[in-house]
Amino acid sequence: MAQREPPHFDRSVPPHANHRPAERPPVTARGVALEVLEDIEERAAWLQPALEAALHRNILSRVDQGLARELVAGTLRWQARLDHALDQHARQGMERTPVPIRRVLRMAAYQLLFLERIPAHAAVNGAVEQARALGGEPMARLSNAVLRKLADLGEVPPRGDEPTALAARLSQPRWLVLRWLAEGGPALAARRGAALNRPAPLTIRPDRTSLAPTVLANRLRQEGATVHPGLYAAEALHVEDHPDPFGGHAFGDGWWKVQDEAAQLVGYLVDPQPGETVWDVCAAPGGKTRHLARLMKGQGRLLATDVHPGKADRLGRALADIECAQAKHHDGTEPLGGPPPFDRVLVDAPCSGLGVLRRHPELKWRRQPEDIAGLVELQARILTAASAGVKPGGVLVYSVCTDTPEEGSRQIEAFLARNPSFQLEDPPVGPIDWTPVLDGAFLRTRTEDHGCDAFFGARLRKVQ
User: Which residues contact 433 (CB under 8 A, 6 or more apart)?
Assistant: First the structure.
């Protein structure tokens, strides 16, 4: 059975504390980070909602909030590498270490190996106190011994291109490394693994219908940010060095939304025109829907649906100015009342999410290779059902945020073999230079090549 999709966290919605409240709320960055790591590992929480909920519950300075974010994301990102380093100094090994203490050791090891600005004694002492609170003096002594050895002797990363060594050195699941090796050998595995371990930049686009990117960029610069135009998407902006991007007036006034360049390209692949009828089939949480609305200049009919009641309800609240409905069927299709023919239909399908591991490092430790087959079956059902909503001459766009061929090109090839009334066509002529992101007629971005999320997209025309 496929695991749940990671949420695309919407910072415009106030964080809701949907995790257990701490009996004694942590008051330090390390305490908050450890609480979030526990939520992620023990209760299958997703990083961003769990982190925002914890920061909402606990009062921390802006600097400590940043440290808490760094500790959680970094510890998850480098988990396998950290375990390998700790194993070199832990007599009993990480596998036999109690799970709560393992989290403490990993977080401290991340500080020792990756955060030069944090003194070693601060990382070790903080971890020893956490271990003492969780397991008494025996666990405090164990943590002190292991971490002091790591601080003094460092790590010896595994060498060579054997899959197990690569997986530990790159801190990636072995099954995923095996896929990369089969696709392009050790060089590709090393490049892709390294790229997915780099934090994603803050990439945004204007949200107001008539707001020009240059106007938005100037306002963000007035707030102290460094702003660069995107490389591929016409309205994308990369924001750096903003003192508080989500606390600034531009965000508070609804001027912009977070959206990776690859995700923005999907909207341009749909290319909705003002006055048309458009259906976003798997719309939650609504980022691509809002982009479609902007491209339509607020003119025409735009329907956003999702099959999950909770997601559909949140979608309706987030997109108050857009028609939203809960889909009838478990495959996420057919809005209430049945789908009339649409000029354009977008299926941004549930997928393995392997293209967004920069943003969801917890996902790589949850996803299993057998999940992909179930997702491929679900995607095929959604595509088939959604295609019935496309009028003759209309456009069907399929996209996924992953790089597996089963969920990408093979999925489309199988659909076209079953549905001769559809034909694959090139992306539309317009504001996008598609050349750098095309693989034949397919949209295909790779993090190691393009610096954005790994996406696949296909544009199909209903010819009869």
Answer: 232
